[in-house]
Structures are given as structure tokens and as C-alpha cells.
Amino acid sequence: MFKKNSVKQQFVDITGASSATASKFLDSNNYNLQRAVDAYFNSPSSKKSSAPVFDKALVAIFENYRDEDNESQIDINGTMQYLEDLEIEPEDPQSLTLAFFLHSPRMGVFSKSQFLKQWQQYGINSIDGMKKFLAQYHESLLYNEENFYEENSNLGYGKKEPVTFKKLYDFTFDFLMEVENQKLLDYQTAIDYWTLLLPLVVNTAVKDGSLQPDKRATVESRIEQWFEFVRNEYKRSFSKDSWSMFYLFFKDIIIKDPEKFTDYDEMAAWPSVMDEYFEYLRENELLEELV
């Protein structure tokens, strides 16, 4: 009974709901706190209710970092201090994971609404708790463990889907847009973030067995050749489609057979930049011929 009362209190603290409402949602979800909280926030009655009551300790954390001129966001200065307190370097991939988790609208900015909503739904209201959660969340993303879910309105009301590394990768493109209605990503910025992201894909592929360790160096050479091709031959910005499709090209063509690109099909619907890269490798005798 003590454990159930404790879980009920956590539900009340997170949602601001009444004790009776807490009992209703916890009973229907076998006292699984996360499922009950998700069910509550996705219920029609919750969406019609007044603004949620946020945990005071969580609000205090936000206030510690918020922009002095805009109380609804954390700006770049607050973000840098926040990262320092979380013991995350700006160039650490976990900083990108944090931006993804908090639905950052652009680099160096966190909105108050998403900051409070995201942390509260997991019952986290301390820097130490955030550190531990981010480590778990980041690892789950890397290895596509599907331990975390996010609502996707495109699937229908209240529907959720697992959070995956591909979603983090696709998020990165929009995150890097600097002005409203920007559609293209500068190629050097793209290279900078591929430098951050692609080694994570390689590490995961080695761990899950889709890439043999003795092929790792070849894949890493392909990454460098891609960068050289983009810098010296392509020299153009990337659309979101090209950015997104390169992840699939990297996983399905390069990692699968880094020496010959066996599954590459010139008639497939790859963006033209990937076809040009293939031709670049072949013309420079950097790709083994298929027998």
C-alpha cells in the first residue's frame, strides 16, 4: 500500500491532477507510472483542462537558466550553463540528444513549455536526475532499443511511436536551420554534423554485428571520401531529402558492403548527389569493380 501511495503522489506531482484522477489512471495501467502519465496527458479530459501544474523544483531549474529578456525560453547563454551543469560538452553528441529530447526549435534555445513538459512527464526535477536520464535516453537512441515513445499526430490522436536514432538524425537538419523558411543546409555545416553523427552509426553497426570489425577502417575511409567529394566536387547545399536519404545510403549501401557497394542500384531513387558520389569513387578507382 505504501508503494501505491508513493506512486499516486508522484502522479499528482507530475500532472497536477486530483488524487481520485490519479487512482483512476493508475488502476487502469496497473500502477505503471509512465504509462499512467502518458494516458492522462493524452486523454481528452486532460486536453480540455486548465494549464498543467508543473513541479516547483523543475520550474526553479528552468528559471535558473532562462533568458532575462524572454521568460518563455532559455537562450544561448543559459544553454551553455545548463550543459556545463549537466557535465556535457557542447561538441558531445549528448548535447544534440538533449536538444532532440527537449524539441529545441533551433541551436542554443529551449522553450519553457517543452522543457517543463518533457522533464515532467518522466518525473524528473533535478540536475542529477536529468544527467542519469539523458545517459539512458542517449544509449537507447544509439542502439534503437525503442525504450522511449513520443506522440505522433500524423498517426492519429494519442498515437505514439518509438524514438529512434533516425529521428534524431532527421531532427538535426531542422535544428540547424538558422532563418525562417530556410530549406537548404550549407555543405560545410552538413559535414560538421556528419562528423558528429556517422561515427555513432558505425559504432552501433559494429556492436549489433551488421559491420564486421575488420571492415570498420574501410567504412571510415568511405566517410572521409564522402567529405572530400562534397567539399571538392559537389560544393552545394543539401536539401532535407538528400540529408535524410544519405543516412539510408550509408547504412544500406556503405556499411553493408564498404568495398564494392554491392547493393547500389543506379536505377534506384537515390538523390543525385549519391549517384555522383558513386561515379566519383569509380572514376578515381576508389571502388572495387563488381564481378
UniProtKB/TrEMBL annotation:
Pfam families, alphabetized: Cullin_binding, UBA_4
Keywords: Ubl conjugation pathway
A GO biological-process term: protein neddylation
Any one Gene Ontology molecular-function term assigned to this protein's record: ubiquitin-like protein binding
Cellular component GO terms held in the UniProt record: ubiquitin ligase complex
Signal peptide extent: none
InterPro entries: DCN-prot, DCN1-like_PONY, PONY_dom, UBA-like_sf
Keyword check for DNA damage: no
Domain DCUN1: 53-282
Its job: Neddylation of cullins play an essential role in the regulation of SCF-type complexes activity.
Record protein name field: Defective in cullin neddylation protein
Organism field: Scheffersomyces stipitis (strain ATCC 58785 / CBS 6054 / NBRC 10063 / NRRL Y-11545) (Yeast)
Lineage, opening ranks: Eukaryota, Fungi, Dikarya, Ascomycota, Saccharomycotina
